[in-house]
Amino acid sequence: MTPILMVLIYVGLSLGSRTHVQAGTVPKPTLWAEPGSVITPGSPVTLRCQGSLETQEYRLYRGRKAASWIMRIPQELVKKGQFPIQSIAWEHTGPYRCQYRGRTYWSAFSDLLELVVTGAYIKPTLLALPSPVVTPGGNVTLQCGSQVAFDGFTLCKEGEDEHPPCLNSHVRTHGSSWAVFPVGPVSPSRRWTYRCYGYGSSSPYVWSLPSDVLELLVPGVSKKPSLSVQPGPVVAPGETLTLQCGSDVGYDRIALYKEGEHDQIPDTPSLSVQPGPRVASGENVTLLCQSQGWMDTFLLTKEGATDAPLCLRSKYQAHKYQAEFPMSPVTSAHAGTYRCYGSRSFTPYLLSHPSEPLELMVS
Description:
Keywords: Disulfide bond, Immunoglobulin domain, Signal. The chain is mainly beta.
């Protein structure tokens, strides 16, 4: 039997009673992924298993048995505990463990490593409630949501060796999917930077695109900086100004925060009209509110109107969230200036910036 054939047979064994482990004699190995366990499709990744100096052989398992790709690893890499994937795809994802054989006995299994591929769905939205500015020692709730009907969400902390690096949460639904993650207590000595992902229960290791980065801002106990504005705090619309934050303390980073910014959804919808802004009385008219960013609901308002805004659920079409507001047939009472807003189901009282005004003229 050739050496390479022996490796394939060893790798192909399932986790059964034929693997003898002498507990307490051979320490369990360490399994990790380089450059990381959360990978974009098509990227290279290497799973590495490290045992003791007396290691004679390594085995890598996906679930309770070896995956087909493992059997194609050259023997010289397997002997070093290296299991490279040149271009990761969904079939490579899953839970992995490894073990090694010392001079006499097989080790216990390593801790579980979950290999994940991202980018299968549109990105969710990550918010800090009530605010991304958190006092030292305080707590905050991070809320991850999406128009996609995910079965679960994962929140990952970036930039540090976290244990665990990611947290899972079950979905709550109310017209869309969302989940909450309590975070804290926080301290100014660390960075608190997060992204979240969504996934389906049938493919728990295939995640969405990551949300935009959310960084929590934790004021420190050192001397506060000064903030000034040039040319001055009172400016005319369209003018350019510069905000300058300075300190005699040698800070590595300076963050600028606008109070109340978290009280509004950052995306701005657009409002258009068909067949056009000038119509004759009796014509059929439709106002279309659209957004690139996720919105559950759109609201249409008319300047000077005393009635409640019109409210419609959004539909995802042509890579946009949109709602159509029909006005058929129009009369002179429909003439006026309209704007639309977007909202999300888990924060229904927070609205987006308004669209640009649209003037409808009825002759």
